[in-house]
Amino acid sequence: MMKKSYVLHVDGQEHHTVVASGDDQTLVQIGDGPLTDLDNWPVQGGKAFSLRVGNRMHLVHLTGMDSKGNVMATINGRPVPLQVMDELKAQALASLGSAAGNGTIAADIPGLVVEVKVGVGQVVHQGEPVIVVEAMKMQNELCASVGGTVTSIPVAAGQTVNPGDPLVIIDPEPGG
Amino acid sequence: MDKQQFSKVLVANRGEIAVRIIQGLKEMGIATVAVYSEVDRTALHTIMADEAVFIGPAPAAESYLVQEKILDAARLTGAQAIHPGYGFLSENGAFCRAVEEAGLVFIGPTAESMEVMGDKLSSRRRMRAAGVPVVPGTDEAVTDPDVAVKIADEIGYPVLLKASAGGGGKGMRVVHEAGEMASALRQTMGEAGASFGNDAIFVEKYIENPKHIEVQVLGDGTGNAVHVFERECSVQRRHQKVIEESPSPSLTPALREEICAAAVQTAASIDYRGAGTVEFILGPGGEFFFLEMNTRLQVEHPVTEMVSGCDLVRAMVMIAQGEGIIYKQEDLQQRGWALEFRLYAEDPSRDFAPSIGRIEAMTLPQGPGVRLDTGVYEGFDVPIHYDPMLAKLIVWAETRELAIARSRRVLEEFTLHGPTHNLPFHLWVLDQPAFQDGSYTTAFVGEEFDKNDWLPELGQEQMQALIGAASLFEALRRGDNREARGFDCPNAAPNWRLNAKRRMTRNR
Fold first, then answer.
1. Residue of B nearest to A112 (CA)
2. Of residues B410, B228, B391, the one with CA closest to residue B308
3. ipTM associated with this complex
4. What residues of chain A, 46 to 105, have a C-beta less than 8 Å from chain B?
5. Residue B247, preceding bond cis, omega within 30 degrees?
């Protein structure tokens, strides 16, 4: 059997799992629990899994949003965003993240850039509005996630953007 | 009015309302013409209509709002009438006139009705003259703070400064005491001038935490009108309705009769033609006042259709054909209870910010008492340019209590996967005591909803199912294809195929 470990983040909680796949079955271990056959089946044209926990079959829809392991899931009609990646990748990302901090402000919904409020070289404070993206007649102001110096603005006003597109990149100030 | 049978009608709208109107026309044996923008090539209304005419780029100002393009589409296809739906050109007097000048029929009221009702001051004056109760206040524009203070002293604080041309919660300001008047008046006039190009402001008594009650009316254009009872629309967020119901839990039979009679009086006094809605606010003591009249088919018209059995689109078309009102007042009845839930692609936890994308999967609720009006389907990319409403879920049952229980079942059955949406929000509303006992007011969501603490925690089994499924999902996604959105690509899932083979064998 081939075993692989995964790290998940759901609702601010971290979870660890192991998926063991062999020639004729796939088993899942959640946390410290046993390796279990969840009786999982892909359904709805491969958009969802049905799987059994306890005595109940659950239907879970899943769609990958980007290459960073962000997944939109829907369970019992409720949308739940989560992150899942294999443990090696998670470790690599974690070490990168702690060294650099994350100063990239990315689009979270598709929309139109209405206004860029900062310029390259400008010093910004955490929480300061840096760019305005309009979607469905609503203007959404995106704010600096860290304080620091703006190093690059890959977009301009009037441009259409997609989720995950970097909009403003900030070089974080130490301690900022 | 001359009688004219339509053989073809153009629907100047998009989304669920275009679909609803096309459905009604098809049932009447009338051919349908849709119009569509660049991003609506694959929209449901475009596909459903007998003919579809392309009218330009995605922004509404370059397509759905361009009168000449709509008229050209009608001429091109030989449609005899235009149904405007709601929003877009539906309450535009100039468009209504242009349609008639082109020799076509506008399925709706006259331009004069739209204009009288589109201006709050003129509608107040007309309604007061017709004997319909209006909120105490002025009928003339006020520019002098001293005059405003004098009026406020007479009617009592708090008062509301309101832009005559305003709407949608814009151009309004509450004033609690004389000292606030001068700056409030200046600001409201500035806002109104900038937003509506008209800085006329009037003063009226501010009714705190009112209920929003509206009455569906049908008029024949010659002073005859009937009502199809009331709807209550007090569950609002950001001044927009999210849940509507009919009947209203707030009306006694006597009050219902009174408020519906006032609505008929409103419509009759302006020789209203077609379907319209007269909105009232209802104060805590049962006093009600005319607020405004919407001269169009409303988003929430299905709750009225569910409890009355009427087809409002058909009624509109028949009136436009010159056949008068197809329902007699004495035949109209309310039967049972209907609730409508507006399904928006939005995130309640982020101040209801729009959230869009592809409808990856959609499982529709079914069973007794369910109606779904929608303009989207599985695989549809929700465009960013228009209203984020995806669907309206309408639930009917014999009583309000049963309708709430059925709604819970139906909302839980509904799976929409893709953009974040407000289905869980509707379930939250159903659980609130103020909604259950019907005492909720327009302040309900603002006061009771805490965006950081409203979602029930996932149960332990649900969480395990979620974590298990997400791990399997990641394991099955093709490792080298970083763009893979799902696990449905052919070379993505050798594991489950083997799994499937084993199960099939076992089950055989």
1. B384
2. B228
3. 0.82
4. 46-49, 51, 53-54, 56, 58-65, 67, 69, 71-82, 84-86
5. yes
